[in-house]
Amino acid sequence: MQRTLAILKPDSVGAGHAGKILAHLEAEGFEIVAIKKMHLTTEQAQAFYEVHRKRPFYGSLVEFMTSGPIMPLALEREDAVTYLRQVMGATDPIDAAEGTLRKLFATSIETNAIHGSDSPENARDELRFFFSRAELIAS
Length: 139
Ligand code: GDP
What we know:
With about 140 residues, this protein is α+β, with helices and mostly antiparallel strands. About 40% of the residues lie in helices and about 15% in strands. The protein is globular and about 40 Å long.
């Protein structure tokens, strides 16, 4: 079993798609180990996306991620990191495969519904960014 971090982004939470996305993830075999709803500060969003600081879309991405509430999730499943990336689909919904979350719910390359960690190392760091050790103890 492996854990990964997902974030329901402000577009999907704001559109009322959180429940449908959670149901989709459970149907794909993910256990929701921890979940919260929060509104990121600019400083928090900048820190989370630090790796993208040099990219031209960094400012816009930080603005988007602070535009409304998000829902970070700790998810557990076999091969969770790779499997979640498949279930999410490509970054740009135009390129996302049929049936993927981004094909179903994303509206642009930026407002793309969901984040998923891209490696086990980043998953560990990103889970720690949002959740305490106590919150990550599975029930
Ligand atoms: P991901 O791993 O599929 O989420 O993609 P990246 O790590 O490359 O990018 C992080 C996030 O930045 C994406 O999920 C999008 O919200 C946003 N993003 C990526 N590429 C672009 C872009 O070319 N333009 C804009 N405006 N946003 C982007």
